[in-house]
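Standup notes
- HV: blocked on the assembly model, inputs below
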Amino acid sequence: MIDAKEVARHNTSSSCWVIIHNIVYDVTDFLSSHPGGVKAILSLAGQDATEEYDPIHPPGTLEESLEESQILGPVDPSTITTITPMPSLTSLSPEKDKSKNDIPPLEEQLNLDDFAITAEKVLSPKAWAYYFSASDDLLTKQHNNTAYQQILLRPRIFKDVRDVDTRTTICSSPVAFPVFVCPAAMARLAHPSGEAGIAEACGREGVLQCVSNNASLKPEQIMASRVSDKQPAWAQLYVQEDRRKSEALLKRVDALGFTAVVLTLDVPAPGKREADERVKNSVNTASATPSEGIQGKDKGLGRALFAGTTPSLTWEDLKWLRKHTKLPIILKGLQTHEDASMAARREVLELGVTGIILSNHGGRAADTAPPPVYILMEIRKHAPEVFDKLEVYVDGGIRRGTDVVKALCLGAKAVGIGRSALFGLSGYGVDGVRRVLTILREEIETTMRLLGVYSLEELGLEHINTRALDQLIYQEPQGLSGGIIKAKL
Amino acid sequence: MIDAKEVARHNTSSSCWVIIHNIVYDVTDFLSSHPGGVKAILSLAGQDATEEYDPIHPPGTLEESLEESQILGPVDPSTITTITPMPSLTSLSPEKDKSKNDIPPLEEQLNLDDFAITAEKVLSPKAWAYYFSASDDLLTKQHNNTAYQQILLRPRIFKDVRDVDTRTTICSSPVAFPVFVCPAAMARLAHPSGEAGIAEACGREGVLQCVSNNASLKPEQIMASRVSDKQPAWAQLYVQEDRRKSEALLKRVDALGFTAVVLTLDVPAPGKREADERVKNSVNTASATPSEGIQGKDKGLGRALFAGTTPSLTWEDLKWLRKHTKLPIILKGLQTHEDASMAARREVLELGVTGIILSNHGGRAADTAPPPVYILMEIRKHAPEVFDKLEVYVDGGIRRGTDVVKALCLGAKAVGIGRSALFGLSGYGVDGVRRVLTILREEIETTMRLLGVYSLEELGLEHINTRALDQLIYQEPQGLSGGIIKAKL
Amino acid sequence: MIDAKEVARHNTSSSCWVIIHNIVYDVTDFLSSHPGGVKAILSLAGQDATEEYDPIHPPGTLEESLEESQILGPVDPSTITTITPMPSLTSLSPEKDKSKNDIPPLEEQLNLDDFAITAEKVLSPKAWAYYFSASDDLLTKQHNNTAYQQILLRPRIFKDVRDVDTRTTICSSPVAFPVFVCPAAMARLAHPSGEAGIAEACGREGVLQCVSNNASLKPEQIMASRVSDKQPAWAQLYVQEDRRKSEALLKRVDALGFTAVVLTLDVPAPGKREADERVKNSVNTASATPSEGIQGKDKGLGRALFAGTTPSLTWEDLKWLRKHTKLPIILKGLQTHEDASMAARREVLELGVTGIILSNHGGRAADTAPPPVYILMEIRKHAPEVFDKLEVYVDGGIRRGTDVVKALCLGAKAVGIGRSALFGLSGYGVDGVRRVLTILREEIETTMRLLGVYSLEELGLEHINTRALDQLIYQEPQGLSGGIIKAKL
Amino acid sequence: MIDAKEVARHNTSSSCWVIIHNIVYDVTDFLSSHPGGVKAILSLAGQDATEEYDPIHPPGTLEESLEESQILGPVDPSTITTITPMPSLTSLSPEKDKSKNDIPPLEEQLNLDDFAITAEKVLSPKAWAYYFSASDDLLTKQHNNTAYQQILLRPRIFKDVRDVDTRTTICSSPVAFPVFVCPAAMARLAHPSGEAGIAEACGREGVLQCVSNNASLKPEQIMASRVSDKQPAWAQLYVQEDRRKSEALLKRVDALGFTAVVLTLDVPAPGKREADERVKNSVNTASATPSEGIQGKDKGLGRALFAGTTPSLTWEDLKWLRKHTKLPIILKGLQTHEDASMAARREVLELGVTGIILSNHGGRAADTAPPPVYILMEIRKHAPEVFDKLEVYVDGGIRRGTDVVKALCLGAKAVGIGRSALFGLSGYGVDGVRRVLTILREEIETTMRLLGVYSLEELGLEHINTRALDQLIYQEPQGLSGGIIKAKL
């Protein structure tokens, strides 16, 4: 048993100890390789870091990075003045906890925006900033949220809509309705049940979850929370600089019963999420050197998570990926009709690519990147054959069942939600995510009834009026040859 | 005479009594079939429910649903502590009543918006929420209110406009000007004179009323309030799951002297009116079960009224309707040129359809459904022959005489107002509705004079500039065959 | 000498006396023919009405309407408790007078908006409402104010702009720059110098004034305030129901040296100016009868001024006008290319029509009428030959020298300002109007220099980019024959 | 040694002395030729004017304008009550100085807007007004700031973006990234290091500075602050009425090692910057004469700086310029495709013109002049060959790295920033400017990575979607001959 006062002495980069869940670790040698930066650890050196560590690292993360000798043993509880509670909503400050009593009953959350309002009350400023933030001036995020509203519906009359059927399949898995949960990272910032809670909610509501590569729980824990072994789940992949790490992950993914691999391509470099950076900055201490002033400091949680990801993938890397997984491959982050066409080439399909997710990473990659509905319309305009060769999914900006139906009318097979699932989790855990999904399903059903359609297959271009957006969709400039498709596989 | 204390003991679902207008009713067996839900009654079990019951049920509604033995007899007045007053503006809370003294003199209400402002002061929160609410994010309601403003007028000079004539006919009935009152439900939430008050006002101002299928007075009472037997009136029909109920209503409609039947088609399922739901929720108690949390609770007055309506009408049902009425049939709720064309088919006309109302149900059906003026322009663009075969009416978003004139320029025969009539009624009863109509008529006359036209027949496309909207009107996507018209009668 | 107490007894419609400038008048017989309504007088019956009467009636107005016997003679000053001061800024309430001390020095008024802000402080609520108000929802007024801003300038470089010349001629009169003051009524509500003050300011700055038919001074007084006999001035004409009144006016106009007659055609009926009506209502007493509640009451100063104007002019009436004046005729209020074409017909030109003013009456006629710049562009698009046959002027919404230059690039010969002249007058009298004109001239000069032009003749379509408006300009709907031009002269 | 009390007596236009840096000057004869106006000096007559004089005049300015006999000698320090400190942030009021302590640490300035917010806190009202102000209603400034946001990016996937290279050349000088600092005047209003501080920052960050013709330091001082002799710098030229002054300047420019001359053409006359004028007015005393009221008073610092500039340059003057410099010539302020085409004529190129800067002078010339990105698109549309013959630069409205990248996609070679550099300087001196540049460079790198390009040469029209702006770009009106190009060289 180690005396906490002894731990407190090791609070510099020369000797840095931390306590996590009552175990003392010597992280001195690990400091420089910490993906989240040296400072993040040093600011907790010599102290109990459980509260900070816990919600953003899957269990065992630290152990995997240390030698056995660096795990120093249990702290003597009698020497600690304050004890960190076991996993719970620890990231909430006391003020926030109080407001938690004021959050509305779950049944009074009537739409997805209600959940965002509640989440802002419940979450710590850091978690809120991480979830809510997007790149630069939030222009793409704003576009995501409003683009669907520019499309008008065309309801038909005298249709028998007693029974409407929202069921479909996504990548061969049957689902209750065409919505899936996107790979949003760090779910335990929202609620201790984290990604596992989302898994259970998805199972109960019959939808599919894509598990983040940066989940705050191990994939084993998340998959164990499924309602049944048949519950479909996708595994997100950020390819690491050290390919062996990614290959190891793919092995676990295969073994755990995931049903597809989602290769994420929309952030070859992290976007600039200033709200995230500001919170981070306000927590840390002032910069010491002038050069730090000029260069800036900590770039926020979003950039820290990116550490280690390779920025140099090309189409050729699909061959490597195929070698290391037997699962269907889905490409996430396409934003142009050119890339959609390239993904629909025979040689790409033969490598096992079965679908693409049109996504601007929730407005967190390039600001002023197009909203997904623009990309859908661009493919519809310039490369409609893509819809015959690949399942096309979209994510970003879904707030209403009408949004989902409009995406389907344009050719999408299903639609992903990200922040909304996290916001549902924030206030209410598993039940919150279920209610988010229930609201969307009911809104989809209502929209289908009011349009006069009874099955998703019926939905088509004749059910929407896209004139307000038509003139904004990319048109190849005159003189640009069609020679865009030149990247070899 | 029954002791009120005895009534108070029957306050559960096993034995549920209520007092209405000093009569005690045993509604235990009726509970489960109440269209408005069990809870709405249970929250008043054992009590005097007159205040809640009265403004939303036509007299005799309850008696029709009960056996004679369930009407238990008069309560002993001496045993009641508080007595509900006879029909009056009972839904107003005391605070509201006070503010009522502050409402402006009628002659200072200068336009329709003024009446909305006053109504918000006068009405109970529940009534205001029911009237004001629309679907989802109110986008369609917003479009309704602003679309007419995008159209510019083209005034001509050197025209003799000493005498302008606003008279016309609607479905063969002569009217003073081309405005009618839409079938808005629950008018007694606004004022005790309810739909009867609107009938009297319409008679005095020479316009036509369409009586709601969900009126808070019996059609007999409403028709009796007409100024003369020749005053035209339309009967709205929501076809019920139990067709015999609708057939019985049609018989009464024929007998009472209605001049047309308006078959409502724009809400095969109720829209999601969240303001309405929120008020309802705030009144009721908290949900007991977790599943109720996930599924949500009470869906508001708007959805309650929908209970019993069939969602499975098709064009074939027009034959059934024709069998049960001799009156002209008007189809309400068309929102596409395709359906307008289908309504103009010879076989439909032969079944007695004489007109169509382009309507998105005041923004209360599908959100992002097009505003009526878009539909008018779409028919003008894709199916102009419809205007020769059917009278085309529009409702939704009329705030000004200029709006009415613009609709007429585009080919509408007349224009309906809904909320404005209720708002006029709210603050001022019959006189308020009359002033609403007078304002519209005077604004129409002014607009005609300033345009340089003396009769409605003169109005045409040359009097408006629709360029701001032209590019937003639906254009059939390339590759969509014209094979839309496939529904057989 | 009449005792004021005696006057006070004649305060009903049976016997109604008023004191104006210390003279007692018996207006009992005149009551019913007062263009401003009975009530306006009755509310002052038995009292000194000078303060109300003075700023809106040219001197002698009342004398002209009464028999000699109805002019009863001077009041005994010793019997009056309060004496109305001689003409001054009497319409200002004391509170307003105080704030007058706070108005900024004239040289700190840097643009036309500054004058509007100051005017709102200085003017009585009634005067402000009358000047500021426009029809219905002020949509056309808003369009007027913003349409010019949608047009971009196209500055050229390497032009010698040392000397720029803003001089031109308007209807053969040389002017210092292409701006004139529109016929705005009731200038004495702004300042006791009234329209005479405007005349002096125009003379000093070398621009032209069009004198309102409803001026608050006699045309003789206004013309006498000109800086020289050669100072050009136009006379506005509203043709009266009683043509002899108009013929009499035309005779005075000829005799006084006016240089043209401006026949106003844009308000065959008064628009609905609600701000104006609201002020009026708030001053008067409550309505007595229910019908008054339904019909509304006083319609404001704007409508009162309209009383007596004929609503039935046609092109034929130009012959009558020609018979009664030798002056050039300018038609004011054209709003379509069709009417511009009709005005440019040979038979119209032969009657002495030399120019047209494109105008929507400052947004006070039909709301959603097009802003003048749209009309300019419509004529440019559909009937460009009009610019060769007539001088085309515009008014409405001019706030900047750039606005003036843009109108000229589109083909206008000159541009009118209305409210701005009154607002300049409000705070500062003659000097204020001069500064308004100076600001505009300097802004025009700066714009010319920055565009790289040295004379007005150089300005053309190549100096502006109108793309933002191009798609909003009226396009004749397909199927509409060109047969619009059918009105015979 | 002169007694300060003696100085105080010379405080009129008959005898006017001022103290600057403890030296007494007799400026009586100079008064009338002061470019900033008589009043600016008279308001300081008899006093110590150091604080007012210093930040807007390069050292020695006054000495150059006076005879030796007018430099009267040092003031006796013991006779002065308050002594002006030596050069420092003297233009800050005490209140401002305090707030200076509250400005955020440099590393928390995350984007260019942050610097503007801080600058408003730090700067004196006069300096803020001078920097921030633009013409008239700031419409062009607003366009500048938002036009880039209307263009969407088109990110490509599967591109190796490990190494991105932002290096390029501008006018043959190698730079670290394609941004330069525009010739913004009066930098010492922001910080005592003034333009010299900007020079050092540009050197450290590897970018180019264009030195203002109206710098508050001598060009010798600015050039001496460069990091190395090879650091490129351009010299701005406003041609003076007195050409000899400009010729003298050109000689110094050649001698000092400037690498190009930037001939500024966008303000042949000063625009109307009202914020600047208002501050100036509020400082000065009230106007004495009525005519001053009508004509307005002091026109602000922006106009004062313009004094002496010639308004009559033509293409012919390029020959004069060529005669007096051997440096490459860059034309600043082109705003039309016509002028771009004229600049690309062989005879112009032969005179040494190598580049053009598309600029509306930061919104300070003609209001409603087009934003630079419109001009880029106009040239791309009507005269694309210009990009082959000249380097095309743009300035105005750059707030983000995405803005820079979009300009480059459209064909720009580099992009200038003006206010941002001054705002960086305001709060933080040299380091602030460096951080502004660092932020831009990092944002450019991130944008390149997210677009999937590794070098600037790759950027092209296929990386942006300009549809939202396409319809706003100038289109030659039908009937306008192509005969625009008629100015002879």
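- HV (later): unblocked. The first helix of chain A runs from residue 4 to 9. Chain A touches chain D through 57 residues (CB under 8 Å).
- Next: hand off to the docking folks.
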